[in-house]
Amino acid sequence: MGFWTLFQVASMPVLEVLLISFLGAFMATSYCNLLPADARRSLNRIVFIVFTPSLMFASLAKTVTLQDIISWWFMPINIGITFLVGGVLGWLLVKLLKPRPHLEGLVIATCSAGNMGNLLLIVVPAICKEKGSSFGNRDVCRTVGLSYASMSMALGGFYIWTYTYHLIRSSSVKYKSLQISEEYEGISKSPNLDLGADGQTLLLEGEGQGKSTSVSTSMTIDELGDQHQPIVSVEPMNGKEMSFWSNLKEFLLKIFEELLAPPTIAAVLGFIFGAVTWLKGLIIGDAAPLRVIQNSIKLLGDGTIPCITLILGGNLTQGNIWEPAFCAGLRSSRIRPWVTLGVICIRYLLQPVIGIGIVKAAANLGFLPSDKLFQYVLMVQFTLPPAMNIGTMTQLFDVGQEECSVLFFWTYLVSAIALIVWSTVYMWILS
Questions:
Q1: Which of 18, 54, 277, 320 is the most exposed place for a label (fewest CB within 10 A)?
Q2: How far is residue 260's CA from residue 286's CA, in Å, rounded to a whole number?
Q3: What is the pLDDT of residue 349?
C-alpha cells in the first residue's frame, strides 16, 4: 500500500473522533447546555461502572485464550517503558525550563502518562474497519483490537493510579508549602502590622522607650510568623513515622481501589472466561446455553465508544475555545508556553521515535507475537495524549487545575494531527 493510502486510512478514525468530540463540546456549552458538568459526571460514572466493563469483558471473553495471555506478556513491560521514557524526558524538561515547583509533577505526569484506554478503544476498531487496513479481516481485527485495547486500559490504569498519582500528590504538597511560604513572607514584609501605637510611643516617649518598643514590635512579628509556620510535632520522629504510615496506607488504598475498579474487575473476569474453556463455552457461541448474557453485555458495551468521545469533547470545554473563560485561563495560567511546547515535543516527536525502536527491537528478538495489530497497538501507546485521569487528580488535590486544562487543550489539539501522521508511519513500517 502507498503512503498516502495509509494516510487516508489512518485519518478517518481520528476525524471521526474529532467530529464526535466537537459535538460533545458543543453540547456542553451554554449555547446548547445538553451536556453540562453535572451531566458529564453522571454519564462518566455510567461509562465507568457499566459500559466500559461490559465492553472489556465482552471482547476479552470472546477472543482471549490462555495462550494469548502468555504471548502478550510484553504489553505491561511496554506500557512501563512508556511511563519510564516519558518520566525521564519530563524530568529533563523540568530541569531545563524550571516551571514553578508545584507544577513539576504535573509536567512530568503529562509527559509520561498516556490515555491508554479510551482513545485505543476508539481508534483501533476504527482502523480495522477501513478498507485499506493491512490488519486482515475487519470483524476479526475489530474484536482482537478491542482485546488489546482492553488489556492496555487495565494495565495503564494501574500505572496511572500508582506512579502518576504519586507525582500529582507530591505537587500538592509543594503547592501548599509554597502558599504557606508566600503568606509568611508577605506578613513579614508588610508595613501595616498594626504597629501605629508602638510607633507613636517611640516618637513621644524618647530613645529609651523606643528600644523597649522595638523589642515589643519584634515579638509581635515573631508571634505572627509562628502562626503561619508549618505545624511541627514536638516529637519529630513520631511525627515522621505517623506521616510515613499515613502516606503508605493512602498509597496502598489507592492501588487496592484501582484493582477493585469495575473496568479492572471486568478485565480479570474476561481473562478468566477466555482462558478457561468450559466457562467460555457457557456464554460464547451460538450453542452456548447462557449466550444471552454475553449478547446483553455486548449490547451495553457498544455504548462505550460514543459516550466516551462525547465526554472527551465536553471535558475539553473546561476552559475551552467555546467559552471566553478559556482565554482568561490562558492569560492567568502560570505555565509558560515553552513548557507546553516541550510537553508536545516529548509526547509527539521523541516518544514515538523511541517507541518504534523499542517495538522493532522486541519483535526482532522474538518477544512479540506475529500479529501486526499487536505491534501497532504497542507503537501507538507511545503516541497517545495525556491520560484524562490526570485532570481528575488535579481536582482531587486542588493543584494546577488551570495549567492542566491548558496542557490538555493543546496536547489533545495537536494529537489529532500526530495520531494521523504516526499511525500512517506505523502501518507503513508494519505493512
A1: 277
A2: 32
A3: 93
Burial of 22 (0-12, 13-18, 19+ CB in 10 A): middle
Q: How far apart are CA 253 and CA 259, in angstroms?
A: 10
Half-sphere exposure in the Cβ direction for 249 (13 Å, CA): 6
Nearest Cα residue to 297 out of 54, 111, 70, 68: 54
Taking only the tens place, the pLDDT of each residue in 48-106 is 788 878 887 887 787 777 777 788 889 989 999 999 999 999 999 999 988 887 788 88
DSSP state of 387: P
* H-assigned helices in 346-400: 351-364, 372-380, 389-397
Provide the residue type at 111 as one letter: C
CB 379 within 8 A of CB 352: yes
Identity of residue 117: G
Q: Could you tell me the three cell numbers for 173?
A: 504538597
| CA atoms of 365 and 343, how far apart (whole Å) | 31
Across 22-50, average pLDDT: 83
* Contact call for residues 311 and 48 (beta carbons, < 8 A): no
The tens digit of pLDDT for each residue in 330-339 reads: 444 567 888 8
Q: Which amino acid, residue 282?
A: L
Among 300, 301, 283, which Cα is nearest to 292's?
A: 283
Report whether 383 contacts 418 (CB < 8 A).
Answer: yes
Report the amino acid identity of residue 363: A
Q: Helices 262-275 and 138-159: crossing angle, nearest 10°?
A: 130
Q: What is the pLDDT of residue 211?
A: 44
C-alpha cell at 71: 504471548
Task: List domains and CATH numbers for the chain.
Answer: 3-178+240-430 (1.20.1530.20)
- Decide which of 414 and 221 is more confident: 414
The C-alpha angle 362, 365, 371, rounded to 5 degrees, equals: 60
- Give which of 175, 109, 115 is closest to 149, Cα–Cα: 115
Banded pLDDT at 186 (limits 50, 70, 90): low
Average pLDDT over residues 377-393: 84
Rounded Cα gap, residues 113 and 80, in angstroms: 10
- What three-state secondary structure class fits 386? strand
More confident residue, 182 or 301: 301
